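S.,

Sequence below, as promised.
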Amino acid sequence: MLIAEDLLLLLTDDDTGRSATSGTELDVALGGALLVELALMKRVDIAGPDERVPKGRLVVRDASRSGDLLLDEALATVGRKEGKRPQSVVTALGRGTRVRLYERLAEGGVLRAEEGRVLGIFPSRRWPARDAGHEAAVRAALVTALRQGVALDPRTGALVALLHALNVVHKAVGPEGAGLTKPQLNANAKRIAEGDWAAAAVRSAIDSMIAAIIAASSSTVVIAGSSGS
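The prediction came back faster than expected:
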């Protein structure tokens, strides 16, 4: 599964099928997860000096197909937006991704779609678990990493970094389940997020992408707060 799919499963309640964070923040995080995965695959990077795009902007290193339709579409989007800052691209990548991933997970038998109505009028859809085996394995790896404060593989490190960027580690892994207090859980998540779980060649790029997620999700919170005041 994609890192974005694992992230979505961790932040969707198995029983209610509802997400544990706001839709706007989740969309940004999913877009960022796609970008991080492409960086781990060395398909995209952050430009250095004297490149075809300005330093610090997104650049495509390998435009060949990955074999995953969603990743290929994400890579094509980055290609069209090459030279842009990561913050603007994570928002574009996240647009519509949540529903597509939910539908894909349902087609794979991991989730099930439940139709309903909000206030008895507006149609809605929830995504409770059908087969939680994969999610349980991912969460177990997270618990091990968070207890030790070290991620032993890039996927686990990326997931912790993404959850930490959203400040929702405690929603994906309960402190009690990990045998830690909430401050200990967050401290270990921060240690992992800043650790060396990714190769040096892509680590700086991933740091920039995680920073972009934090900035973009913060912007959505500010906009939502302003519109509601």
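The longest helix spans residues 200-228.

Coffee later?
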